Amino acid sequence: MTNLAHVGGSDAFAIAARLERALADKPRGLIIDGRMVPSVSGKTFATCNPATGKEICRVAQGDAADVDLAVQAARRALSNPAWRDMSAVDRSLLLNRLADLIEREAQELAVLECIDNGKPATLTKAVEIEGSIKTFRYFAGWPTKFGGETLPVSPRSGARILNYTVREPVGVCGLIVPWNYPMSMAAWKVAPALAAGCTVVLKPAEQTPLTALRLAELALEAGIPAGVFNVVTGFGDAGAALVDHPGVDKVAFTGSTEVGKAIVRGSTGNLKKVSLELGGKSPQIVLPDADLDAAAASIASGIFFNQGQTCTAGSRLYAHADIHDDLLARIAEHAAKLTIGNGLDPAVNFGPLVSEEQWDRVSSYVEIGQREGAELVIGGARPQGLDEGFFFQPTIMANAASSMRIVREEIFGPVLSALRWSDPEDLVAQANDSDFGLSAGIWTNDLKQAHRMAAAVKAGTVWVNCFNLVDNATPFGGFKQSGWGREHGRQAMELYSEVKSVWINLS
């Protein structure tokens, strides 16, 4: 894989300046039926650099009319022999070719994501770009391995019957992705959908549309037929139109639980299939025998990585009373060492929040926590000297209680709420006392306790003595209001396919 260690510093600033000059020339259009086109209305909106608060460029503002055109293109492509009858081997080759092109454009994509999302270029390189390459390569292996089976049946008639199942693409997929990991979240959905033979209409978040558009351009360059991969940029009305459209067979969404519920309601018109990866309020459970140095480093990373704008962020810390103060002090030390600033600087490992709206949200939760009685240990405000952009300090709130909003509600920012515990049974009850169940972290050197806790915690992913590890081979998703279905692995392929049972009378 391309070495991107030099992304950051003067190279990154120069690439960013060149990209911004090119983007400012004309608005970025929608990708529909293999072409970049303006929106039907002609409207555009601004996408901004979170590190400066300044406009990068204008982007076409799609709405229901544009969604309809994109869905029509996707439906035509679904029956186009060039895609419909493509062999499994050839589909694999296309996905690998797309991965090659992402790798070729890795430097520019890393910087593009940095200026549009705000996270440091070193992280966009490692997480967004390298992660997307791995995702497309992983799912490129599935078309030749994903199929049906022959089944022994016992019909009442006593006839000799051959029964077999086949896997068919579910159809046109509406993919709606968030702003916190724009490119990798798009890859998580686009790759298995294409591997299964579906066609897609991708709706990126309005805050971060640029890498989605570039990804679709690279897909066309890779040879994916026109209409197979469409992108409609815009606001919530475009997403709602995609959910409501009768020509869409499946919706896959990553984002807030509130919007996820609205998607479920909107999908009932034609009973389209729905998969949802929603909010989280992940507990970090630390037992008294844990390695506190390792736990503190990982807990700090688990809440402050990507400025806390992560669905799995370990935002609820349950530390045993005997080690609570020591652990909190160690986490605070890690937070204090973070270098905050423009993510184009290679020394920076903590960038801005994505928008002014998100900054206001995080700030309001810190105020709410203090009013409810939590103690502000560190952070809670804009860093000194960073007057432009949407920067917010890594924040720790101590003396939190299960009833507080900062413990119960997803903040989606760099805010850790710390709680003490002493009774293991009460600990499990507290950890599970949440509407969410996406993930959890457990820290202990006691193997029996680790297994018991992992079994007791209600979450789709449980990490023991580690946190925030994901892989394309293992399922990812949540319990309770954290979603429906699973990303990655065979489970993702199943989400984008239908099973057909065929009965042949051989008598």
From TrEMBL:
Note the Gene3D superfamilies from the entry.
Answer: Aldehyde Dehydrogenase, Chain A, domain 1 (3.40.605.10), Aldehyde Dehydrogenase, Chain A, domain 2 (3.40.309.10)
Ranges of residues in domain Aldehyde dehydrogenase: 40-502
Task: Kindly indicate whether the keyword Zinc-finger belongs to this entry.
Answer: no
Q: What is this protein called?
A: Aldehyde dehydrogenase family protein
What is annotated as the active site?
E277
* Domain of life of the organism encoding this protein: Bacteria
Q: Where does the UniProt annotation place the signal sequence?
A: none
Give the UniProt keywords, A-Z: Oxidoreductase
